[in-house]
């Protein structure tokens, strides 16, 4: 072999290795971005889906789905109305904690619906919420679990208090007016 052939082979090997490394790092970057965006929800989805590849596909699909929704911020009057309703729900907690949790769950769904989130299926609701509020979706699941125990009369006052805290954190975020995925196309 002459020097030109050797140089061509070396260059081809370097280019092929570079392309392979580029693909590997590109995939890793996408995984890192999803992990950074979704936090604990990323890990939960990996576990639930049975692998990182399926989880990445699921999380990307969630983002695409939420991007197609007509999510909008609340108007000032809607914001004020729901804030007033939330205050009433929190006040009710002192005397009727179980009913306050039922009302908090209903109010969360009502605000989600008016903002444009589908609310018919809890799993779809949590998947949609995970896109814009990934740090709160675990709390939302926890609150819903406590609410379900409440329906069966198998919950302590401390658990009800924790559910109210979980619901409040999501409620406060739902009342904010800054754009989220699914809103930017309305500008």
Please tell me how large the radius of gyration is: 23 Å
From the structure provided, what is the oligomeric state, counting identical versus distinct chains? single chain
Look at the helices and sheets and give the structural class: mainly alpha
| Low-confidence runs of at least 5 consecutive residues | none
Portion in helices: over 70%
How many strands, what sense, and barrel or not for the largest sheet? none
Topology as a string of helices (H) and strands (E): HHHHHHHH
What percentage of the residues does DSSP assign to strands (E)?
A: under 5%
Shape: elongated
User: How many angstroms separate the termini?
Assistant: 64 Å
* DSSP summary, beta strand count: 0
Mean pLDDT: 87
User: Number of helix segments?
Assistant: 8
* Overall structural domain count: 2
């Amino acid at each position: 072999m002459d020097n030109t052939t050797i140089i061509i082979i070396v260059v081809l090997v370097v280019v092929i290795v570079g392309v392979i490394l580029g693909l590997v790092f590109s995939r890793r970057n996408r995984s890192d971005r999803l992990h950074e965006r979704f936090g604990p929800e990323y890990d939960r989805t990996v576990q639930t889906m049975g692998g990182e590849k399926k989880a990445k596909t699921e999380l990307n699909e969630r983002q695409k789905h939420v991007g197609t929704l007509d999510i909008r911020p609340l108007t000032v009057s809607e914001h004020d109305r729901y804030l007033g309703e939330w205050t009433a729900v929190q006040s009710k907690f002192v005397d009727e904690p179980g009913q306050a949790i039922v009302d908090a769950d209903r109010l969360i769904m009502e605000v989600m619906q008016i903002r444009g989130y589908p609310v018919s299926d809890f799993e779809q609701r949590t998947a949609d919420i995970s896109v814009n509020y990934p740090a709160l979706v675990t709390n939302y699941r926890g609150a819903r679990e406590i609410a379900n125990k409440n329906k069966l009369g198998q919950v302590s006052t401390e658990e009800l208090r924790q559910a109210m805290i979980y619901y409040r954190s999501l409620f406060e975020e739902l009342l904010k007016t800054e754009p989220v995925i699914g809103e930017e196309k309305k500008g």
